[in-house]
């Protein structure tokens, strides 16, 4: 009888632990949903954190892959609008964007430290994602450029969600090994998509990319 009672007690404890764990996960999911449902479409971009506990990086997509219009998020309204140059829509007179282009949430390239005064740029290699998409990514590398005397670094990343991944790589070395021409294609695109002269300093791996991201995180 004692053995039966002990087994029954252990089963009940496991059931209680399982139910408690489920409730914690459920309540966390609900709190996240409430947070975003309470935010307006603009406010949700102001509450994003840069890094997760797993060192994945939060990105906001401005320009979908395959687009030739220069779309940017308005810093006042947070709406996604086509950039203007000389009173006209800015259209890339070259091949369209080879990936989903945007910025890393919660970062700022400080002009006093050679930055361009914007959030850190990112190119996410994946199928086309709409403007305004928020997703977690894995940084693979960083393309280091100088544009008009300012640092204009581009983080190269892939979605952390395997269902969204179109390339097989977790490091810059793997990316170069599996797709040897891709690095050259991306670099050539950034050198030719605009009429302004751009200088290439080189590439950095995933460690340097993550270090660059951490350096530009805005401390509130």
UniProtKB/TrEMBL annotation:
One of its GO terms (biological process) is phosphate-containing compound metabolic process. Keywords: Hydrolase, Magnesium, Metal-binding. The keyword NAD does not apply. Its EC number is 3.6.1.1. Its cofactor is Mg(2+). PANTHER family: INORGANIC PYROPHOSPHATASE. It comes from the Bacteria. This is inorganic diphosphatase. GO terms for cellular component: cytoplasm. GO terms for molecular function: inorganic diphosphate phosphatase activity; magnesium ion binding. It comes from Cochleicola gelatinilyticus. InterPro entries: Pyrophosphatase (IPR008162), Pyrophosphatase_sf (IPR036649). SUPFAM superfamilies: Inorganic pyrophosphatase (SSF50324). Pfam families: Pyrophosphatase. The keyword Cytoplasm does not apply.
């Amino acid at each position: 009888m004692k053995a039966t009672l002990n087994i029954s007690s252990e089963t009940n404890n496991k059931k209680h632990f399982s139910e408690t764990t489920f409730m914690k996960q459920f309540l966390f999911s609900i709190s996240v949903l409430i947070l975003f449902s309470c935010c307006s479409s603009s406010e949700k971009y102001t509450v994003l954190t840069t890094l997760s506990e797993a060192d994945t990086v939060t990105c906001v997509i401005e320009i979908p892959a395959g687009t030739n219009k220069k779309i940017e998020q308005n810093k006042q309204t947070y709406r996604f609008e086509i950039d203007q140059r000389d009173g006209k829509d800015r259209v890339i007179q070259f091949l369209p964007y080879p990936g989903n282009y945007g910025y890393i949430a919660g970062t700022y390239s400080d002009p006093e430290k050679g930055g361009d005064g914007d959030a850190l740029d990112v190119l996410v290699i994946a199928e086309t994602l709409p403007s305004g998409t928020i997703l977690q990514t894995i940084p693979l590398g960083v393309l280091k450029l100088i544009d008009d005397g300012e640092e204009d670094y581009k983080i190269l990343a892939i979605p952390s969600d395997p269902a969204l991944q179109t390339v097989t790589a977790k490091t810059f070395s793997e990316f170069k090994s599996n797709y040897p021409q891709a690095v050259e294609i991306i670099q050539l695109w950034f050198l030719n998509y605009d009429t302004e002269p751009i200088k290439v300093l080189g590439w950095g791996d995933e460690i340097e990319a993550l270090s660059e991201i951490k350096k530009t995180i805005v401390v509130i």
